[in-house]
Amino acid sequence: MKLVYLINTYKNENQLIRLINALKNDLVIIFVNIDKKFETNFNKEKILKSTDTDVKFIKNNIEVYWGGFTVVRSTFNALKEIYHSNTNFDYLTLLSGQDYPIKSSEYILKYFSVSNDVQYIDSFKIPSPLEWSHEKGGIERLEYYYDFDNKNLEWDYYLNLMKNNNIKRKLLDNTNFYGGSAWWTLSYECIEYIVKYIDNNYKFLNFFKYSKHPDEMIFNTIVMNSPFNKNVVNINLRYIEWILGISHPKILTIQDIDKLLTSDKLFARKFDISVDSQILDKLDEHIL
């Protein structure tokens, strides 16, 4: 059993070091994908010296903008780089720099060693009557044009213009769309399928380029339309607390420690050592 962690990050170098040290194991390889806008805030030599484990930095990293296709492109670039590096692994877990394990690395390795090619990706069919209700079950994310990577456009104005004039995109034929968590754990074979699918389906990729928050749909859609869909377990293995009306998860603090220690999840998000580092101290006591 060998695990790869792909960590997408843009802030808190010291928190990244703590995350790597909490994950490290002889059977673990860690790839760090730094948002190019913030690359100068990370001292790679310091990170390597402070972690003493198998850490590699993604070379083809790009600037990333929240909500835009650059989030997807950044992860795609990293997956292709990992795949073409001939790195051997059984599972790859996508993490952010503000995630943290709430189980030991040995526990996590054992968990995946008996997974039997299960794909862990939280997904629901779009439109969904229970999810993203403010966006008509998610269909509005697809049927209108978005380009959050273009910071010069006022998207509220253009979205209202499209809605008022009933201007909609033509959806892809013969595709069932899925949404869900942007964080997942997938087998080597599934990652290989995704990389090859991306390389051979420009029209599919280009369609999602102009959708809203494509990172919460494109991987889910690829996997759920693939032969791997029969092995999907609809969970992302993370403890996350969402706050009603807010688009990002709650920052977890020491007040949440009991919930984390009794959770059956493997990871949790999100943490920020500038807000509360004590909770990571407690988690380290528990898992290390």
Concise summary:
The chain has a domain at 3-114 and 237-287. Helices cover 35% and strands 15% of the residues.
What does this structure look like?
The chain is built from eleven helices and twelve strands. It is of the alpha/beta class. It has a domain at 3-114 and 237-287. It has a five-stranded mixed β-sheet with strand order 3-2-1-4-9, sandwiched between helices. The longest helix is centred in the N-terminal third of the chain and has 16 residues, at 69-84. The chain starts with a strand and ends with a helix. The model has no long low-confidence stretch (mean pLDDT 94).
What keyword list fits this structure?
288 residues; alpha/beta; five-stranded mixed sheet; 11 helices; globular; Glyco_trans_14; XYLT; Peptide O-xylosyltransferase; metal-binding
List the helices and strands and how they pair.
Elements: E1 3-9, H1 13-23, E2 28-34, H2 44-51, E3 55-57, H3 69-84, E4 91-96, E5 99-101, H4 105-113, E6 119-120, E7 123-125, H5 140-143, H6 155-164, E8 178-180, E9 185-187, H7 188-200, H8 202-209, H9 218-224, E10 232-233, E11 238-239, H10 257-261, E12 267-269, H11 278-287
Parallel strand pairs: 1-2, 1-4, 2-3, 6-10, 11-12
Antiparallel strand pairs: 4-9, 5-12, 7-8
The portion of residues assigned to helices is 25-40%
Strand content: 15-25%
Structural Rg: 19 Å
| Helix-strand pattern | EHEHEHEEHEEHHEEHHHEEHEH
Which structural class matches the secondary elements?
alpha/beta
- Average pLDDT, all residues: 94
User: Helix tally?
Assistant: 11
Shape: globular
**Sequence stretches where pLDDT stays below 50 over 5 or more residues:** none
Number of strands: 12
How far do the termini sit from each other?
20 Å
Characterize the largest beta sheet: strand count, sense, and whether it forms a barrel: 5 strands, mixed
Strand order of the largest sheet: 3-2-1-4-9
InterPro entries: Glyco_trans_14, XYLT
Pfam families: Branch
GO cellular component, one term: membrane
Keywords: Disulfide bond, Endoplasmic reticulum, Glycoprotein, Glycosyltransferase, Golgi apparatus, Membrane, Metal-binding, Signal-anchor, Transferase, Transmembrane, Transmembrane helix
